[in-house]
Amino acid sequence: MAMTLRLDADQDRILTELAAAQGLSKQEAAARAIVETAERHLHQTRVADLAEKAAQRYADLLDRLGQ
User: Fold this and answer.
1) If we measure between CA atoms, which residue out of 11, 53, 64 comes closest to residue 33?
2) C-alpha 54, offset from chain centre
């Protein structure tokens, strides 16, 4: 699906630098940045969910260890 990405001057400069550093087109650099950010966010969310479940599951043990 085609999409127009509107960037301000600073964002365009940063994207240009990122693309040059990676040897990519600006389009490919933007696409990769989106995917990497999404993967990182989803991973952090999964880790936080698992940590919460573990804290609930082992709450009694954690309380005893804290004494």
Assistant:
1) 11
2) 23
Residue partners of 1: CB distance under 8 A and separation at least 6: none
- Taking only the tens place, the pLDDT of each residue in 10-34 is 999 999 999 999 999 999 999 999 9
Rounded CA separation 20/44 (Å): 28
Tens-place pLDDT, residues 53-64: 999 999 999 888
Q: Give this prediction's pTM.
A: 0.69
CA-CA distance, 55 to 43, in Å (whole number)?
18
Amino acid, single-letter form, for residue 5: L
- Positive or negative: CA dihedral 55, 60, 65, 67: positive
Query: Distance (Å, rounded) from C-alpha 18 to C-alpha 33?
Result: 9
